[in-house]
Write a structure and sequence with these properties.
Helix content is about 30%, strand content about 25%. It has about 450 residues and is α+β, with helices and mostly antiparallel strands. The protein has two domains: about 180 residues, Beta-Lactamase (2-Layer Sandwich), CATH 3.30.450.40; about 230 residues, Phosphatase 2c, domain 1 (4-Layer Sandwich).
Length: about 450
Amino acid sequence: MTRGAEQISVQRADLGANATLRELTALLRSGSTIHDPAQMLAHYASWFGRDPAAIATDLFVTVSRRDMPEGDYKLTRVLTARQRLDTGGDAPNPWREWERLPVGRGGLIGMILERDEPQLLTGLNIPSDPVLGELLASMRACMATPHYDEGEALNWAIQFSMDPARWSPEDVERSLLNGNLLGTATRNLVSRQQAQILNAKLESQMDEVARVQRSLLPDKTPDIAGLRIATSYLTSEKAGGDYYDFVHFGDGRWGIMIADVSGHGPAAATVMAMLHAYLHGLTKERMTPKRSIAEINSRLYQSLHEGMFVTAMFMHYDAGSGDLDFVLCGHPPARVRRADGRVEALEGEALLPMGIVEPYDLASTKATLNPGDTLVMYTDGITEAARLNEQGKRDMFGLDRLDDAIRACTGQPPCVIDSVHKALYEHVGSMTRDDDQTLIVLRREDDA
């Protein structure tokens, strides 16, 4: 029972005996499942065809001025028998075969289209029409109703009868209302089909962008002496703005970057591709994190549109000593799980994100990854993943839950990633993401 229904007192009329209402309900219900304009027109034609004004029609013509030169029109339907209105016979589908439709100019139809308002014409005497030929020879009355689109009479329904007194102004009223209601519904279906086609194209393009973007990420983790490495890259959309990479500088020195481009989608993916090109274009000899970031920032500053930026953590790692030299560009500091199980931030001097200012004041921080330590680099899509609490406010995953997830495992990189993902799902309760989520987990082996 509906909640609170026991407190409501009403009397419900019995409409079951109304056959017309039952039939109309079934017609509308089934019509709501139709997605093709021609099928919908045929579906409702049987109902509108019951109108005495429609039954009296001896010749039915529909025309369209949409996208036509001044004075020209397309003949979308010419039906010489009323019963063919239900199926349209073998006439071309105007929504799919526009080019097959004949073009008209002038004649009685041209005269009608000069006025964008309903018309009732009597006393017809047209032995031969330049467009419809002898079809009008026996017709004595015409009822023409425009179907408006954005205020313009772009489509018309024109009915002919051999009876000069067949129709009244009241018939024109009904025809105008019915035709425009059906025309609006048809237009909505056409728009929906066009949107579906465009969405399919966009989906295909996004798939391609995502494929190219994925190709810019490392296809496998590098073999760095003394390190175990695991990574995870999950996008909120097919094309994301997170980025990570490894660059070998030689002599056991590695550049490791994790970055987050502002925004999502193709724009962010494009900036990510730029970042990849800039990173791999660095001169590797005697390159320091400060020099690397200074060069990348300069290029981003010249390239990015206003309002776009890139946060990043970029570090040089010495595989022989475990020494780190890193720069934080508006990016959250990495977390370190020490060999004794403590989890702490790898603090460094915070800088602005890249691409905002030039020149760029830089400062790097030195640290050491000791044997048994695990370093966790992440993007803020992890900590800012949120659910709504009982008060309806966003409850973010946060650093505390991230640290708990890091502590709740062995410290081995695959275990850390699994633990973080499990904790995220338990907190958010969904596999979908509002932001990209990336993890790089590095563990210096005990025997390094």
